[in-house]
Amino acid sequence: MIYELREYTAVPGRMPDLIRRFNEHAVKLLGEHGMEVVFISLTEFGPQTMGQVVYMLRHDSYDALERNWASFFADPRWIEARRLSELNGSLVSRLDRRLLTPTPFG
């Protein structure tokens, strides 16, 4: 099992549109493409307060992660949702991504 932490920094003024795209399209499609959404949050404290959507996905393996994202990005519903949501410009100015493997500490 691996986890993927993704941080999307919104273009100034575009956060409502980014949240709308997650709520109306992305969350459902992520699940349909085998990605379990563990949580989604807005940053409350730190340098990107009010400017980031942060979420974590769970994948069975690195290979599954690759397959899941490939099928997600090829989905015509995602392609159209992204196109329509970005008619007035990009919603995301920066994407940071980390892969995490649970490790016992003791």
TrEMBL record:
UniProt cross-references to Pfam families, sorted A to Z: NIPSNAP
Listed SUPFAM superfamilies: Dimeric alpha+beta barrel (SSF54909)
Mind telling me which InterPro entries this protein's record contains? Answer: Dimeric_a/b-barrel (IPR011008), NIPSNAP (IPR012577)
Q: Which organism is it from?
A: Kitasatospora putterlickiae
Q: Which residues form the NIPSNAP domain?
A: 3-105
Recorded protein name is NIPSNAP family protein
